[in-house]
From TrEMBL:
<feature type="binding site">
    <location>
        <position position="136"/>
    </location>
    <ligand>
        <name>Zn(2+)</name>
    </ligand>
</feature>
<keyword id="KW-0862">Zinc</keyword>
<dbReference type="GO" id="GO:0036054">
    <property type="term" value="F:protein-malonyllysine demalonylase activity"/>
</dbReference>
<feature type="binding site">
    <location>
        <position position="114"/>
    </location>
    <ligand>
        <name>Zn(2+)</name>
    </ligand>
</feature>
<dbReference type="GO" id="GO:0070403">
    <property type="term" value="F:NAD+ binding"/>
</dbReference>
<dbReference type="InterPro" id="IPR029035">
    <property type="entry name" value="DHS-like_NAD/FAD-binding_dom"/>
</dbReference>
<feature type="binding site">
    <location>
        <position position="133"/>
    </location>
    <ligand>
        <name>Zn(2+)</name>
    </ligand>
</feature>
<comment type="function">
    <text>NAD-dependent lysine deacetylase and desuccinylase that specifically removes acetyl and succinyl groups on target proteins. Modulates the activities of several proteins which are inactive in their acylated form.</text>
</comment>
<dbReference type="InterPro" id="IPR050134">
    <property type="entry name" value="NAD-dep_sirtuin_deacylases"/>
</dbReference>
<feature type="binding site">
    <location>
        <position position="56"/>
    </location>
    <ligand>
        <name>substrate</name>
    </ligand>
</feature>
<comment type="similarity">
    <text>Belongs to the sirtuin family. Class III subfamily.</text>
</comment>
<dbReference type="GO" id="GO:0036055">
    <property type="term" value="F:protein-succinyllysine desuccinylase activity"/>
</dbReference>
<keyword id="KW-0808">Transferase</keyword>
<dbReference type="Pfam" id="PF02146">
    <property type="entry name" value="SIR2"/>
</dbReference>
<dbReference type="GO" id="GO:0008270">
    <property type="term" value="F:zinc ion binding"/>
</dbReference>
<dbReference type="InterPro" id="IPR003000">
    <property type="entry name" value="Sirtuin"/>
</dbReference>
<dbReference type="GO" id="GO:0005737">
    <property type="term" value="C:cytoplasm"/>
</dbReference>
Length: 230
């Protein structure tokens, strides 16, 4: 049974109504990335940042997984312990679909983080600037999101799993954001077969052995079906 590492990006959640920061409308279009997705932006105006993520959290809470999320959860269920989803997304649509082996390398909307003691807890639907940490009682709560300029979570574990992978697939990713954009090169160096499933070619498409283009809700279930019927 092959060991499979799957990287998912904003493209897999787009069909569930969650926009990306490259969309021309939606939440991201109303703000500069520097203002709402950097530590410096949070330091300048914490309430603006908290309000932005409150809106994203509410949007994600109302969203439902699509056929691509469901297909990946089905793949995991069919291959216990052999499928890992590494997601750049901060929504919980993989979990809503039934996946359990998911690493959120860029954090999660439903989690809060203490900037002082690193304690984590379930975020309320609406956070406020200056919320108290339940562990140290400091007014230092922030969204548990990896902002630009910060180090993604789980990098050591991801590197280990890429090393062991027989198949690496990237779904709905642009190839713009590192270190995730470099995962295909790392997996290939370790001997994995690499697959891109995307609405359109990513910036690193030439590094993949196999490509499938189209909406994730169509390409991903078909790809999973092929794996399960081998």
């Amino acid at each position: 049974m092959p060991k499979i590492v799957i990287l998912t990006g904003a493209g897999i959640s787009a069909e569930s109504g969650l926009g990306t920061f490259r969309d021309k409308d939606g939440l991201w279009a109303e703000h500069r990335i520097e203002d709402v997705a950097t530590p410096e932006g949070f330091a300048r105006n914490p309430q603006l940042v908290v309000d932005f993520y409150n809106a994203r959290r509410a949007q994600a809470a109302d969203a439902s997984p699509n056929a691509a999320h469901v297909a990946l959860a089905r793949l995991e269920a069919a291959m216990p312990d052999n499928v890992l989803v590494v997601t750049q997304n901060v929504d919980n649509l993989h979990e809503k679909a039934g996946a359990t082996n998911v690493l959120h390398m860029h954090g999660a909307l439903d989690s809060a983080l203490c900037a002082a003691c690193d304690h984590r807890w379930t975020a309320p639907l609406a956070m406020a600037a200056g919320d108290l940490c339940p562990a140290c009682d400091g007014p230092t709560a922030r969204p548990d999101i990896v902002w630009f300029g910060e180090i993604p979570y789980y990098m050591e574990e991801i590197e280990m799993r890429l090393n062991e992978a027989d198949i690496f697939a990237a779904i709905g990713t642009s190839g713009n954001v590192y270190p995730a954009a470099g995962f295909v090169q790392a997996a290939a160096a370790y001997g994995a077969m690499t697959v891109e499933l995307n609405l359109e070619p990513s910036l690193v498409v030439s590094q993949f052995d196999e490509t499938h283009f189209g909406p994730a809700s169509q390409t991903v279930p078909k790809w999973v079906e092929g794996l399960l019927n081998v």
